[in-house]
Amino acid sequence: MSPERRKRLCESFPALFSGHIISMDCGNGWYPIVYTLSQALASNPEARVAQIKEKFGGLRYYVDGVSGDEERFICAAENASFEICEECGAPGRLRDEPRGRWLKTFCDACDDSYLQRRRGK
Questions:
Q1: Each residue of 39-93: pLDDT tens digit?
Q2: N or C: which terminus of the chain has fewer CB atoms within 10 Å of its end residue's CB?
Q3: Of 103, 104, 106, which is closest to residue 85 (Cα–Cα)?
Q4: Alpha-helix runs per DSSP H in the chain
């Protein structure tokens, strides 16, 4: 996620992002999901985001101090990330790198671009 978008999240939801955040490491395409999740959790004074990242091709949003209902909302948003390109936000799907080292959720265009970068072209 770009530094500008990280800053916007922290400024928009200061209480939610006031704790020790390990990282916000995912593509800009998932920013709307992250923003919506943050907005939904911001009313909970106990909630503190610990980490936001991509793992196994999907979004992971780690937060402390949430209820069971909030955890289900987070899980639904994480599952939705498997249908949204991490890079650009267009409809996407889970893909594996040709040698099977990485899983990524990309649209066709971002997948082609990613594979070219990985090959050094």
A1: 999 999 999 999 999 999 999 999 999 999 999 999 999 999 999 999 999 999 9
A2: C
A3: 106
A4: 3-12, 31-41, 68-80, 108-119
The Cα 121–Cα 118 span in angstroms is 8
Give the three-state DSSP class for 79: helix
Report the pLDDT averaged over residues 20-46: 94
User: Residue ranges of the domains in the chain?
Assistant: 3-119
Residue (of 61, 53, 79, 69) closest to 13 by Cα position? 61
Helix, strand, coil percentages in the chain from 3-state DSSP, rounded to 5: 45, 25, 35
- CB under 8 Å, gap of 24 or more: what pairs does 113-119 form? 113/87, 114/87
CA dist., res. 48 & res. 45, Å (int) = 8
